[in-house]
Amino acid sequence: MTATPLKGSDRASAGPLADGTATTVRPRSPRRRGRSAPYWFLLPAVLLFAAFTVVPIGYAVWLSLHKVQVKGIGLGKGARQQVWNGIGNYTDVLHDSEFGHSVLRAFGYGLIVIPTMLGLALVFALMLDTPRARSAKFARLAIFLPYAVPGIIAALMWGFLYLPTVSPFYYILREFNLPQPDLFDGGNLYLSFANIAVWGGTGFNMIVIYTALRSIPQEIYEAAKIDGASDLKIALRIKIPIVLPSLVLTFFFSVIATLQVFTEPMALKPLTNGLSGSWSPLMAIYDSAFLRSDIYGASATAVVLALATFVVSFTLLRVSDRYTREDRA
User: Fold this and answer.
1) Burial state string for 236-246 with b = 16 or more CB within 10 A and e = fewer than 16
2) pTM for this one?
3) DSSP secondary structure code for residue 26 in this structure
4) Distance between CA atoms of 186 and 172, rounded to whole angstroms?
5) Which of 279, 281, 117 is nearest to 209 (CA)?
6) In 10 A of CB 318, how many CB atoms?
7) Which of 2, 108, 113, 123 is most exposed, with minimal Cβ within 10 Å?
């Protein structure tokens, strides 16, 4: 009886065959095990993403292609059946004037919020980045703190400040016989909602821009000062062009948040009679799904809004990327 000599770890994995000869079972290569390790770490995140993002999106698309068909008076078993509707729901959405008006209102809201919020965030970040800034840590915290307040709480807090009967601002206006504008009527609604969004979102955007400013090497500033550049010229010609990618990023986030505005108008709706249930696109979806029980039409509206958000974001990204490449060239 002969045996094949074994070495190292091969001996532990060897076993006799039927004729008694020893064989060698090579262990799995550590390099091969290392290649598959990242996929095992990613597996939980992929499963959660698929379960809570991909599957709901697919189900919404599936619902948007169906409708309920009612037979007779709609009573009894089988009186209401789910049938294929194709693009019928999408056609209804595109011809729905109320949904179109909600998109226009969101657009007008964004024209106020985005420039104001990003402008203030950039100014605050530039001010905090100057060497002469005092109490910079406290100022950063004070500007960022409103972002930590939940949106629904911020909306309700500002909503009561807008009410003439309980607001201290209206009390001061009455004492000095000053005009008392109705912040829940007409165009003032845009300013009311925009104020809440700017108050809560400026701090987050400021932190993003300020972080980008802190990553700029100090040698660049020193060279500019040697050449006689003032703080204003350094901000306009050095700081802002360098942090432009961060500005583009915050701009994309702001555009997406504008198209998805929901918390502010929904929270203020019980405080006024001048706010419709479909003031914003998401409110129109909510109204269709939960108040009118048209889950199929609401799914189609949600898909249209998601596609519009994707198209707008992708277009802006391509345009900004092209201009960035031209500037670098």
Assistant:
1) eebbeeebeeb
2) 0.82
3) P
4) 23
5) 117
6) 10
7) 2
